[in-house]
Design a protein that fits this description.
Blueprint (H helix, E strand, L loop, with lengths): L1 H8 L7 E3 L2 E13 L5 H4 L2 E2 L2 E5 L7 E9 L2 E10 L8 E6 L1 H4 L4 H11 L3 E14 L8 H10 L2 E3 L5 E7 L7 E8 L6 E7 H7 L4 H8 L13 E7 L5 E3 L4 E3 L8 H15 L2 E3 L25 E3 L8 H19 L5 H15 L2 H7 L3 H6 L3 H18 L8
Antiparallel strand pairs: 1-2, 2-7, 2-8, 3-4, 4-5, 5-6, 6-7, 8-13, 9-16, 10-11, 11-12, 12-13, 14-15, 14-17
Helix pairs in contact: 9-10
Amino acid sequence: MTAVISLIFSKHMTNTSINGNRLLSVDWLELWCDTPDIDIYDNQKEFDKWTLQKHDEGTRVFARIYDVVWNHQIFASFVCRPYSPIIQANAVQIKFANWLLYSRDALSVILSLLDALKLNVLSCSRVDICADFARFSNGEDGQRFITRYVSGELARVGNGKFQVNGLQSVKDKSKKVYQYIRFGSRSSSVCSYLYNKSAELEEVKMKPWIKDVWESSFLAECDLSREVWRLEFSITDNEFKFTDGEEVKLINWQMLFDKEYLLCLYDCLLVKYFDIREVSDTDTNITRWHKVAMFNNVVECFVRFIERANVGSNKMYKYLCRALVDTAERLKGEGDEDFGLYMFCAWQLITRGGIEEWAVDKLDGSINKVLRMNGAERAQLLNRLRFEYTLFGKCETFRF
């Protein structure tokens, strides 16, 4: 357990990476796992040096919540014992403490913890990677960037949906001070956030380990009385894949603690999901507009992300999807076991066709419950559906 001890006493030995005018970090790591013995957590409290502390209540999806504690400090929390039979009974979802992810020995401690709890990692439920900086490479801060975007000077390549948050100036009521902008929707595989991290730490929750990282990096050379901004990418699809042209890969969660891998992945996300252009009045093709440089030394990674096909607002797909769902609900009400076939087809069309946001708002019944599940739960459901159709030629899973 020497790795754990060094974490406690070496706050300046961090798991961050400095590149150009930015400081890269992993800010959230949540893993989807299974275990050979789910009963062990109810029957045993000590695992090597780790102690489990059980919460009095569970979540809407899981009956149990445990904190993993050592030396009176929480290193991780996990949930297990799913209520729904759709999720495997031995499934475990574990989230690691934020402070741990900023520590130099994070990976060795996480591996030790997983081994002690007998957890087998299946995929990432959620990964957030971020860059902290004072100014973009063009000298602008985050507030100036958001102001220009909202005013129409800048545009983003891709989905144009965004959400902003800010304040009205006390002195000048016509002036708006923006602190936050988000690109992407609730159903997106990747969301990008630009926000005032200094303000969040002061106004929402102070995280001294992040301030320590700033003070031990090039950011200390900046005037930290000025604001530090964060550009963050949150990946919430456990089946999110990318390819370098040779093979298709899932995100390797252990490699997130390798500086070169983290930099490459971040820059790939930056190029794909934060492609900002200066609006042109003479050209209607946004891809020909001038590209705004965000950071210095952006790595040229030849990586293509593989996402669900996007059919946008195609009326034919939506019409077909609604017809399938209506037929499935009618058959279900009549007790006809073939209802599952129609529901399965509708669900495949929605998830692979990229019309989830529309489906959540417009469709009711069993399919709506499925759409509100997280990525890991839906992956479990898809595997079960395939199993049932292969063996029985029908589906009982949607009968809830």
